């Protein structure tokens, strides 16, 4: 019987990742069955509630204002628009709505108040609500919790060592600080990363060490394959092989047995057989809808056909944790503090990010 451990080392994780594929799959599937129903997969819908124009320089992201991509930016969506989208997602089998805003960090004010209202509205639809809004103070995390937020997503993206090759506008420690702020509330933590950004297997293992040694481990870990978008610094990265994705999912499942492992970006280039192997290896969540923030994703009807074919059942909401209560804005115990925390500006340079931004000016 496998147990949850928080003392994983990088060497142990590398050894798991490099196991012969059949041994790796068997072990991951065995762990998966100890902690989860292997035929149940959570379906989440990711909504981009504010697209583009982000001041950060994440090398993989088409929403960074400094790169020249074809992304059409939009201002913060209205609460009624978000509600309509959430109802549509619910009708097509989603139990969770994740709202993403292209912000460096949350700022107190009318836009954050509008997001809090979105959280209340979706929670009242009896769906799990998740947000990914950038860095967050403890007070902001408390206000989200009070509004009825179920999960907060804040990806570590990669290892601490490789982080400096991907992003120069904030530090790895900022990510950990936001996760810690969320942990002070009853909101669950969703944090994972991206493979295919030029990182080594050691970096993949390093990211998993950082996640698996958190105590408690994140309730949800998204594993993304880079979708290389033209105009971003990573436009020329080679596509991730399905076998790498399967290894990453299986290793994540083994080192974080209780977590919900999300098969996230990159599914457009995976066959159904490849995705089925990922489910066998322990993935038990997908994002549905034809767009993942800004990159293409399989159509929900195709996903439902895949579910039928594989005998998979969409997970109901709130099976892993109770539905949070929603406190209305007028009854709130918390007020906006208007804090201006000093998130780091590490100041190192990343040549490919600078080149991509100069190219866009030309
Ligand atoms: S990943 Fe998020 S923080 Fe980074 S550039 Fe894109 S929107 Fe901004």
From TrEMBL:
Described function: Catalyzes the conversion of dethiobiotin (DTB) to biotin by the insertion of a sulfur atom into dethiobiotin via a radical-based mechanism.
Question: InterPro entries, alphabetically?
Answer: Aldolase_TIM, BATS_dom, Biotin_synth/BioAB, Biotin_synthase, Elp3/MiaA/NifB-like_rSAM, rSAM, rSAM_sf
Q: Name one GO biological process term.
A: biotin biosynthetic process
The UniProt transmembrane annotation reads none
Q: Which gene encodes it?
A: bioB
Which residues make up the binding site for [4Fe-4S] cluster? 54, 58, 61
- UniProt cofactor(s): [2Fe-2S] cluster; [4Fe-4S] cluster
Which keywords does UniProt give here?
Answer: 2Fe-2S, 4Fe-4S, Biotin biosynthesis, Iron, Iron-sulfur, Metal-binding, S-adenosyl-L-methionine, Transferase
Record carries keyword Translocase: no
Q: Which EC class is the enzyme in?
A: transferase
Report the sequence similarity comment from the record: Belongs to the radical SAM superfamily. Biotin synthase family.
Which Gene Ontology molecular function entries are recorded, alphabetically?
2 iron, 2 sulfur cluster binding; 4 iron, 4 sulfur cluster binding; biotin synthase activity; iron ion binding
Q: Does the keyword S-adenosyl-L-methionine apply?
A: yes
Question: Subunit structure, briefly?
Answer: Homodimer.
Residues annotated for [2Fe-2S] cluster binding in this entry = 98, 130, 190, 262
Q: What is its EC number?
A: 2.8.1.6
Pathway this chain belongs to: Cofactor biosynthesis; biotin biosynthesis; biotin from 7,8-diaminononanoate: step 2/2
Task: State the SMART domains in the record.
Answer: BATS, Elp3
Q: Which Pfam families match?
A: BATS, Radical_SAM
Residue span, Radical SAM core domain: 39-267
Which named protein is this?
Biotin synthase
- Catalytic activity, as annotated: (4R,5S)-dethiobiotin + (sulfur carrier)-SH + 2 reduced [2Fe-2S]-[ferredoxin] + 2 S-adenosyl-L-methionine = (sulfur carrier)-H + biotin + 2 5'-deoxyadenosine + 2 L-methionine + 2 oxidized [2Fe-2S]-[ferredoxin]
Co-factor remark: Binds 1 [2Fe-2S] cluster. The cluster is coordinated with 3 cysteines and 1 arginine.
> What residue spans carry the region label Disordered?
331-362
